[in-house]
Amino acid sequence: VESTPARPFEGLAGLAGLEDSLALRRCRLAAALHEGEVAPTLTSMPLFGVPGTFEPATAPGGPAAASLFVPDEAIFPHPRFPTLTRNIRTRRGGRVEIRRPRFRGPEVRADAAVPATAEEADALDHVYADAMAFGMGSCCLQVTMQAANLAESRRLYDQLAPLTPILLALTAATPFLRGQLCDDDTRWGQLVESVDDRTAAERGVASAVAGDERLAGNGTRRQPKSRYSSIDCYIGGGPEIAEYNDVPLVVEEAHVRRLREGGLDEALARHVAHLFARDPLVLFGDRIDLDDDRDLDHWENLQSTNWQSLRWKPPPPEKAELPGADAGHIGWRVEFRSMEVQMTDFENAAFSSFVIVLARAILDMGLNFYVPMSKLEENMRDAQRGAACPNGRFWFRTKVLAEDDKDGELFARMTIHEILTGHGRFPGLLPICRRYLGKTDLDVGLRRRIDEYFALVEGHGSGASATPAAWMRNFVLNHEAYANDGRVPPACAHDLVRAAWEIGIGRRACPELLGQPLQPAAVRRSSTPGRCYLARDLGRRPVECACRVAS
User: Fold this and answer.
1) Which burial class, exposed, middle or buried, applies to 119 when counting CB atoms under 10 A from its CB (0-12, 13-18, 19+)?
2) Quick one: which H or E segment has residue 310?
3) Alpha carbon separation from 247 to 163, 231, 235, 427 (Å, rounded)
């Protein structure tokens, strides 16, 4: 279920309505539930893929996923989704392989066996899954920001990129896969592997294979990464781009030349060309012969199936031509995609607001967060590890302000708390945000709310409050049904999901997650949530919720 506001929020003042908007959306979701159902904002269900947990009972497998664990009936039936699932598997030449380390288990070996049965999978020394649904069935928190123009969108994209692993670690919320506790904390690795359509030759695990001329690069050109991954290159227009893009980019040089001849500069031409180094995964028969001067479907087909930690989003031509004040106008946008969804509207509003304030500070203060792409790749790998927040160390730029001298080391490894609050001559992201906000005329009440949001972010960074991943893992480890075998018992999964729902609607306090004295919006408003009558308007029973639409 994807939740978006009816209209985009405008300016920093729009943050005042963000948390209430999230609460209202949660309420509307709750109003659609039947008796005995809950819908907590978790990245994934603890027992997804475990036998006996699908209702009605359905055997795994089917022509789309051919999974050992998940029935095709679990895939949304719109033709796009089973087709994506089947075509990823067909192009790859077999089922996708999702592997995460078991809790307190060894690292996953590159040469790990491919199991033929569920029993063989359970006998591995790591957690294994085999279908797109294990990744793309996850939930996340994304923020899309519209820039003033093309140049500003490119700057935003580049400067937000080094923040994607930091926010991934701060919001880590996925400590389990297929009913088993994992030693890492995020959904990112299973997302990457769940849509990995690369052939064996493209993955570098086979050589001297016959190519297939129907495929991009004949299906034999080395592709270092899955089509779901961190970004592959910066796209800004400055001369420093070549220096920081220090990881080879897979492109067809003929595509780059054609784009250059069409008017794109080198950095943007290479970014667009590298998207076309992948094959389209699904086409509709009535959308093949199009006017590419006016219709973006062919572009969006590839753009929307290159899933990366950021997405640069050119506008539809007819929408871009409308005046900026027109309600239908769409401009150049950047989508921040690495964050994990949180259990409460307060947390989701906090991290969304942090990203938005940082974006405004980047543009207003001329901030420079560039790190070499190789260091950004390293950070994305480290952000997935267990307790990366607060214990991990990440490469970050130490001189980010326009007035900083450029002598000495430009990059250092820091903890997330040091990145947030400062280290040595690096001022820290939160002080930078407060310095920027000090130049604005924000309402006092909104500034107080943003300070609460920043306190939550800093608490996660320091370890004073737990990430959702740490909280959920501890919940399982301390549950009376846990048998010390690394598996999530059904009774524990039931209680965990119920607790997440109650925390989300404000019925249950959780200071270890939200910090003290911070509480979610519903608790701040009322000691007992109201009974919302939006449900009555929809012909359903009243539900308890965290929104203001109460009796």
Assistant:
1) exposed
2) strand 310-313
3) 18, 11, 14, 29
